[in-house]
Amino acid sequence: MVRVVLIGAGSLEFTNNLVRDLVSHDELADATIVVHDLDRARLDLAADVARHVVGRLGAPATVVAALDRREALDGADFAISTIRVGGHAAAERDFTLPAAHGLRQTMADTCGAGAISHALRTIPSMLAIGRDMAELCPQAWLLNYTNPMAMLVWATYAGTPLRRVVGLCPSLRNTAVELAELAGVPFSHVTWQGAGINHQAWVTRLERDGEDLLPRVRAACADDPEGLGRRARAELFRRLGAYPSESSEHTVETVPFFLPHSGQIERFRVPVGEYLQRSLRTLDEVAETRRRLAEGEQLELDDWPEDATAIIHSIVTGTVRTVHASVRNEGLITNLPDGCCVEVPCLVDRAGVQPIHVGELPPQLAALNRRFANVCELTVRAALEGRHDLITHAALVDPNTSATLAPAQIVAMVDELAPSISP
Amino acid sequence: MTRIAFIGAGSVTFTKNLLGDILGFEELADATIALHDIDQERLDAAQAIAHWTNTALGAHATIEAHLDRRAAIAGCDFVVNMVQVGGHPATLIDFEIPRRYGLRQTIGDTLGIGGIFRTLRTVPVMLGIGEEIAELAPGAWFLNYTNPMAMLCWATYAGTPTGRVVGLCHSVQNTTAELAEAVGVPFDQVTFLGAGINHQAFILRFEHEGRDLYPLLDEVIERDADMQRRVRVEMYRRLGYFPTESSEHSCEYLPWFLHHDDQIEHFRIPVDDYIARSEENLAEYAEMRRMLAAGESFEIERSQEYASLIMHSIVTGQPRVIYGNVRNTGLITNLPQDCCVEVPCLVDRAGVQPTHVGALPPQLAALNRTFVNVCELTVLAALEGRREHVYHAAMLDPNTAATLNLDQIHSLVDEMIDAHGAALPDGIATAAARA
């Protein structure tokens, strides 16, 4: 019987969908689902949500709530992390403080000053999880959903003995689905490939029966000057020849091309401060879930498949699947640094998550990815080595930050944003 | 007997200095010097200064002058390159068009839009030389002095069968001498180690009898308000390692300075500096021709350049250390394989042998990778004749992308391609621009 631990289960929307997706597989319906959160109230709520979903589906699964992480992880087969360290208040600070120094951000969860700060406060938790797992369930897989993905997964495999760590994000596949729609071809008929770094990966191939579909996508973009023509990711596709895997509001933060220019913000409708709105909505949703459960109302069940469930199912049953995951670059993308965290297609079967060798990315894509990887590397090393100077360096080489601010301003901002760090 | 070709010998001041260095070695004083330039007037001037130098040093070199490059290269042991393709007019284009877009440059010979186009118009010449060496002087060492160093060496070893390509610059020598002076330690007692990419290398070790000298430098900087207003000192303070190039060069390779008016002023950045230098070079050339015609004499002093030392070490077997720009074959482990890196090299009878440096501090590697991005895309554009990679190179250039938006970058590149036209590699000027 498979034991699945949800770490940070207080992320209720995710817990709801993951539990539903998990127990709707016959082979996983009798799973032991351990929900864990550091916040007692959120943990209770998460356990109620999980039980509610299991009950609605009539599955024989067992739901266990554990406030203690080590107790939760003991004997686990899979741990899924959706932790959010610092909550809304920390996220808000990641925006307002850089904004006071003149730096614009949209999501602050991937690359850039806010993301560096976000990673620095989350990495200690990731390291603790990794170390606990190496001790208590050394054969288990850690499936991470928390951002900044590339930095957190990198820190975990570099800073703990845990090797079975993969980062999951639906962005690449979602992008391929959108592109198939733009090309007017059913997704099930499409051959596609994508790789890069999470939130800055690229759909490099999109074909049907050997026909390259990217010209159709290009035409669809050209036919929609006021719609797609005013989206940053479509603009980058036009300039680079491969479609970026993340939404425009994410993508703009990983490059120097948009946020420093007021004219570009307007033309590409860049939603500065967007993540704060989303974060506030999440708070509302938690309150609404609490109210419904208290009043005995039904929760809404979603129906999208989660990669975590697919991986668990493939490993348990041997069903062969392809997922796109963030893993350590061990010669997978040959023109990105060894050791950095890359997003590549992976084979999953009973033997586990097995990354596919991609080879070389087109050089212009590798060049952008290297700049992103620079920020990741310096942030991860700052956290692992407890070095404040490397935090400053991370901000100094960040594409958007360095295109907006002069060095002295960057240093002053970092000193406020990340005043102290210890190994 | 050693045969040495000077390609672009019409850079007469440089020719005089190198020749003085070479013929100053007894073991090289009977060398054959094959001068080549495509400009008859400059070739004549080079030949005159070579004869003058030979006589003044009491050497007995054989001086040849060739308008035909193949004749100069045939049978050489060393080929020294100092061509400047397009000369002063091309330099003016490199500055004036970007300036209209609001894009500032200082030197324009390394990275940035100027560096990209200087590379594009020079690579065809580099490939021609590389092919001719492979055919007419296989085994010869190709010592390149022409900028953009990192891009041109890369294009040559990647695009021709000539593997013995070494790029030479004096920035490491000059920087280490200045640092030693700043801290008051005799240069010959200082231990140093530098590495990186040419014009963006860093002094990784700076020691005296096992003691780190950087804390001493920190004290000097702390007391010197003038030093604090230098870009390279600012870089050192932020990064922890001193950069090997001058402030006016270094500021162009970073997104931090040129697009901020207050940074220009604070760090006293000489925008468009190279135009004045290029004009000075023209004046110096005219003066040199006048002096030759008038039978006046010149000063001969050993220079800082490595070329003669390399030749001497290879010919005599005397071991030396030089800083060379070579293919990264695992030398700097956290920079991309095959990019062109600047590392210490041992030179002896076995040739120029790069040393393994290992991993650079991560912040330095991060900056170098950003530099290498532009180099790689420019070299690929030139070797494969792919115009789209020219746009990509400009998009990835730190200062260009920090100053201009994507539309501006695109039309800037289009204008630059039109202006340089036929000098560019096949495929760049002819291919239709992608929308």
Written description of the protein model:
The complex is a heterodimer of chains A (423) and B (435). By secondary structure, chain A is of the alpha/beta class. Helix content of chain A is 49%, strand content 16%. Chain A has 17 helices and 13 strands. The radius of gyration of chain A is 21 Å and the shape is globular. Chain B has 17 helices and 13 strands. In chain B, the strands form 3 sheets. Chain B has a 6-stranded parallel sheet with strand order 3-2-1-4-5-6, with helices on both faces. In chain B, strands 7, 8, 9 and 10 form a 4-stranded antiparallel sheet that branches. The model of chain B has no long low-confidence stretch (mean pLDDT 96). With 435 residues, chain B is of the alpha/beta class. Chain B has helices spanning 12-23, 40-56, 69-73, 87-100, 112-136, 149-159, 171-183, 214-223, 231-239, 247-250, 261-266, 273-293, 307-316, 362-384, 387-396, 398-403, 406-420; strands spanning 3-7, 32-36, 62-66, 78-81, 141-144, 165-167, 190-197, 200-208, 211-212, 242-243, 320-327, 340-348, 351-354. Chain B is globular and about 55 Å long. The A-B interface holds A 222, 235, 238-241, 255-258, 260-261, 263-264, 335, 337, 363-364, 367-368, 370-371, 374-375, 377-378, 381, 389-390, 392-393, 396-397, 399, 402-403, 406-407, 411 and B 234, 238-240, 254-257, 260, 262-263, 334, 336, 362-363, 365-367, 369-370, 372-374, 376-377, 380, 388-389, 391-392, 395-396, 398, 401-402, 405-406, 410, 435.
